[in-house]
Amino acid sequence: MPTTNLYFNNFAFTQEQNLIENLIIESIKIYGIDVMYMPRKMVKEDTLFGEDILSKFETAYQIEMYIKSVDGFQGEGDFLSKFGLEIQDELVLTVSQRRFGEEINKLDTTPTNELEGIGRPSEGDLIYFPLNGKIFEVKFVEHESIFYQMGSLQTYDLSLALFTYNNEILDTGLSVVDNIEEKFSTDRGIYELLTEAGEVLVFEDGTSIVREDYDISQIDSQANNEYFTTSSIDFLDFSESNPFSEEGSW
Predict the structure, then answer these.
(1) Would the pLDDT of 156 be above 90?
(2) Is the whole-model pTM more than 0.90?
C-alpha cells in the first residue's frame, strides 16, 4: 500500500512538468548563447582502453545553451610548464533535454536513449564556443543537475575542457573548425592522391602517393624524420608512414 497522500501527489503531474520544462527552455533562449554541437563518430574504438584515436566529426548542430560558469573559466587556467604555455580552461554549459532531442539527430549521438527514443550528449563530443572562438570537449554529462522537479528531469549539465587536437578528422562544414585539421594534422592520409572511385594511388612497393605540399617538418617543427631516415641508423624506419618500426619485413 502507498504511504504518501494520494490527494497530494506532487511528482506525477504531467502538465506541471511540461510547464517547468517550457520555462527552462525559454530562460535558456533568453539568457543563453548559440553554440555548435559536434557529435563524435567512432572509427576504430579500442575497447581495452575505451578510446578511439581515429575519431571523426562530420556534423555541427546549432543549439542554445546556458553558461553555468558565470564567474569565468574554471580549471587550472593559463600557466607555464616544462612543455611551455598550457591553457587548461574548463566550462560548464546547461542544455535542455527536450531541445537537445529536437535539434540533434539521435543517429549521430552516442549512446542513444532507447527508452525515450532520443539521443543524449556524450563524453568525447565537441562544442564550438563562439565567445572566445575555441573548441571544448565534453568530459562529463550530468543528467540530474536539477533533481527531479515535479518528478522529471529537464536539463543536462555538460562539463567541458579545452579540446586538444590529435589528428581527428574534422569535416563538419564549419570552416573555423575544419581549418584546424588542414593546419595541424600530420596524417598522410589527407594528402594522398585518389582516383575518381576514391581509391588510393600507390607506388610499386605499395606505399601511397602523396601531394608535394606534404612536409612533416612544415607541420611539426620538432619532427626529425628525414634526419633519422638518412642517418647511419639503418635498423629503424623513421618515415612518416611507418615511424619507429623495424625496417623491412622480418
Answers:
(1) yes
(2) no
